[in-house]
Amino acid sequence: MQTYDVTIIGAGIAGAGVAELLSSKNYSCLVLEQFSEPACGTSSKSSKLIHGGLRYLENFEFGLVKESLEERAYLVEHLPKLVQLKSFYIPLYTHSFRKPWMVFIGLSIYSLFSWRKFSSIPKSKWKDLDIQTKNLLKVYAYKDGVTDDKALTTHVLNTCDCTVSFNATVKKIEDFKTHCIISYQKEGISHQATSKVVINAAGSWVNEVLNLCTSKPETLPIDLVLGSHILVDTQIDRIYYIEAKDKRAIFVRPYHNGTLIGTTEVPVSHPQAHTKVPASDIVYLLDHFNHYFKTQITTANIIESFAGLRVLPGDNKDAFKKSREVQIHHDKINAPNVYSIYGGKLTTFRSTARKVFKKIKAKL
Ligand SMILES: Cc1cc2nc3c(=O)[nH]c(=O)nc-3n(C[C@H](O)[C@H](O)[C@H](O)COP(=O)(O)OP(=O)(O)OC[C@H]3O[C@@H](n4cnc5c(N)ncnc54)[C@H](O)[C@@H]3O)c2cc1C
Q: How many Å apart are CA 216 and CA 335, to the nearest integer?
């Protein structure tokens, strides 16, 4: 049986981040991933932003925004080929729910945390923008980060000195006092590995994986929310942050010779990869694009669509109001060696890894 310090379940950004940190500290790690390559779950279906999360300020998540902006600064400096700062434009109309003064306050806090200025685009320059200018009141511009989520995850995993096994589906975790035995299936053959600690970085499958523990540990209640994007063949010049009719945020950005539009939020009951975008989400995204932009598009312009799942706390709050903070869950009594990552962001994969390490350091 192979023996490691840590077994990490999941080769999404969370698992890759933990593997990167632990291997840099010379711990031996095994990463097990059920699919044939990294980032097949949510980590290739995000909005591909490395951002503080301007809208989280509305929920007073100041700590999360500050931490995310610090991570953004690190990634922009250290991975310039993968993460770049770009200008984002926020158009505000007479019918917008958020008034210019509200956005001004939010951007002031954002710029204070990030040391990056924002500005207001003069009316004389509005004609250069891709958006409709009728009833336009104000346009703000601020800086945020963009990436390719799959390329970022793959890069992080590739820089680790650890063993990664693809097409390896974890089937059972036996948790003993000092170690765990992990049973997994790879290409029809059963394998086993043993490690001091197991990190459950299974994303939306987090509770499914925790339920594989023979000790039956406690799981946290979660809500899974599906977010969809469409990539259309229309070209725009800039990145926009627009307000949906239901007050949610929609990002519209140039991406791979087209325009990426997203995201929506629809509750779902089961974790799934390669989820189909619901037809209602396609209509919702096309409608919003056509409402705000000069160019008009139809389903014929869609090149690709994809959907990913957010893991949010299972409370009674509206998805928009739920906390986006990561939780590291550890059932000390039933599963003393298994640590589960609930939620989180692409942007904060390094700080999530540090939080995980803080919890498992003594064990290692
Ligand atoms: C629509 C949407 C947009 C988003 N946009 C942004 C954004 O712009 N910026 C940002 O910072 N964050 C964003 N996020 C959040 C971010 O994308 C996620 O927090 C992050 O990708 C989750 O990564 P993960 O590694 O936890 O999960 P995943 O990427 O889903 O990885 C989990 C992995 O575990 C594997 N796995 C599961 N079960 C098993 C098993 N039994 N055996 C082996 N392997 C298993 C899966 O195959 C999967 O590869 C967005 C999220 C969504 C849903």
A: 8
